[in-house]
Amino acid sequence: MVISDENNSVQIKPTNVQEMNGRKFGAEIRTNRRALTAINHNLRGPNNPYPCLVNKRDYPESNGICDNNLPLQSHRPITRKYAAQIAGSRHNFPEETKKPKTSSSTNEFSVWEDIPLTDSEKDHPVPMSLEHSDFEISDKNQMEEVEMEDIFEESVVDIDGCDAKDPLAVVEYVDDLFAYYKKMESSSCVSPEYMAQQSDINERMRAILIDWLIEVHHKFELREETLFLTVNIIDRFLAKQSVVRKKLQLVGLVAMLLACKYEEVSVPVVDDLVFISDKAYSRKEVLEMEKLMLNSLQFNMSVPTPYVFMRRFLKAAQSDRKLELLSFFLIELCLVEFEMLKYPPSYLAAVAIYTAQSTLYGVGQWSKTCEWHTGYSEDQLMECLALVVGFHGKAANGKLTGVHRKYNTSKFGYAAKCEPAHFLVQMHSL
Known about the structure:
The chain has 430 residues and is mainly alpha-helical. It contains 19 helices and 4 strands.
């Protein structure tokens, strides 16, 4: 009799007499073979065709192992763990397991044949959890190889699958929608040289105006897209119409009024705009400027701004709240700077998110999914990276600190307190 322990297989020579459940066996087996044959014959049948079936619960000392060192089939199913026990017992006794099995007609102690396993289970049986066998080492190496392949063979994630049942997500044509935005974003851009045709205003005045409007937008608690459309309307109007210095603030207020009418549910009234301008303009002047701006822009308010791309790209980046706030902090800093008009809205959105990712989590965050949905590789974003990091570094200094004060509050998670990613500029300048 061979007993296979789970952790240490040891051969024990059979004794003349063994005691199982208070009954003595041994001599009776040797002297009364006929009786045992009859018992086996009675056990054989359609419900129990295997004579050597042993109930492990009735004979715990046997541990389910027969004389030929192969495990007996119990009522338990062939699980991966049990298959490993079978393989382990065969591994411990390689010479004996090569012996051919004898039928029940010649040997009363014939073995119940194992239930066939699948090909994968035959080739790679899983060892028991407490053993460190060759099988376990092999499986562990295979798992490490699979994990390494997953790292190097990154695939594009389906970011819209979770919104399949949301009709507002328009999953059926969201890709076509953003492809159209990318195609039409050039129509929302203005020439970065348009300020040359303005005789009484300059780039610095525009920056002061937008920095002030960001604070007004925050005070009125308007929607995020309203701010981006306001800045877009200002630039498109100034690119077509010459404005004197004293009317520049009026242009900004009316641009915000038009953006609110397009985006907001509750629109600020004209008297509110007159009040926040310290009554520098009358109600009549506001309405006259509104007509002039609408005619100049040919009533075209539907343009892709950086906001629409920000939302899509943040979803592709699988962002959390912290990344989202820092990304919007950086993109609003870009709104103030006139030199950023030379970049398309989608590019600015991608750069802001990439810079925010690197600032919070280090380099190497730009995934294949981000590259697929933005259309920009990591190398393409390097052109604008130094500018964005520079804006972040000087956001708290100087006179134009409206964006920094806004994002230095608990409502915006103190995103402005994050340290600028100067290491990115140094790394890519090498």
